[in-house]
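Listing S7. Sequence submitted for prediction.
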Amino acid sequence: MRALLVAAAVGLAACSGKDGGDAIVSDATTASMSDAVLDGQMLIGDRWVKVVPAVYHDAKMDLATRCLLMRDDAKSKGQQIPLCYDKSDVAVRDRPARTITTIAVERDSNMASAMMRLTSKNEATHFVVDHKGGIYQVLDLAFAPRHGDAYATGEVRVVACDEAGEKAIVAALQALYPNAKVTTSDARPTKGTEP
């Protein structure tokens, strides 16, 4: 296992050539987090960027795969549903970086209801924060999530069920995208409407 991790680290270092993509990483991490301990990682265009909070990456929660499977399943039943994120034929690594103007935070009461809400609307989010504060990245930041009836090209989306975890991920995102406006909304059901 250790050899696999070392090989992966070497592979990532070898792939981080001088194609300009590393500028986002170094600028974002040194500009506002130079004194912080960077324990976590975020995925941006198939590249790992170090950030302060621990960010988990669970393959079972990966929306890039799950949404493709849902779309293909619907297609096999003669239905058409939109993909929950913007997928172009261009490889993620080769696509120009998205200009992020908004960090959209949606507060929810529990992760199960949040994920059911997103799935029922064929929508996506980049991060989820569970009720214990665990932060999970579920979609590469290179992809625009489907939000409402369109792809939110300038948005990073966070669904949060814990205040401390929400603050940690928002701070990390603000360090990466200092010009982005943070918006919050409450997706929690009102009393008496929870399933």
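Caption to Listing S7: primary sequence and predicted structure tokens for the chain studied. Residues 54-186 form a domain with the Lysozyme-like fold (CATH 3.40.80). Residues 8 and 14 are 10 Å apart (CA to CA).
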